[in-house]
Amino acid sequence: MSNFSTSRTIIFAVFAIALLIVAFVLVFNKKGIQVTSQLLSPISQVSPTVVNVTSQNADKVVEDTDKAIQESTSQLDSDLNSLDNIDQTQDSTAGL
Questions:
Q1: Which of 36, 10, 19 has its CA nearest to residue 89?
Q2: pLDDT value for 35
Q3: Are 37 and 85 in contact (CB under 8 A)?
Q4: Is 75 within 8 Å of 43 (Cβ atoms)?
Q5: DSSP state of 86
Q6: Cα separation of 50 and 40, whole Å?
Q7: I need a surface site. Which of 10, 21, 73, 88 has the fewest CB within 10 A?
Q8: What is the Cα–Cα distance from 37 to 35, expressed in whole angstroms?
C-alpha cells in the first residue's frame, strides 16, 4: 500500500510543479494575454414615459408599448446573435 501512496504523492508533486510553471509563464509573459473586444451596437436607453390612459388613447398607448417591447426584444436578439460571431482566430494557446 505504501507504493500506491508514494506514487500518488509523486504524481501530485509533478502536477503541482507543472501548474506553478504554467502560472509563472502566464504572469511573466511579456506579451501577456491579449483580449480583443468586439464592439456591439450601441444600446439605446429606454426611458419610460408616463401617459394617462383614457378611453380615447388606450389603443395607441398599447400599440406604442408593444412596439417598444418588440424593438427591445429585437435588439436583444441581435446582441445575442452577435456573440456567435466571435473571431476565434485569436483563440490560440501557441507559445504558452
A1: 36
A2: 53
A3: no
A4: yes
A5: -
A6: 30
A7: 88
A8: 6
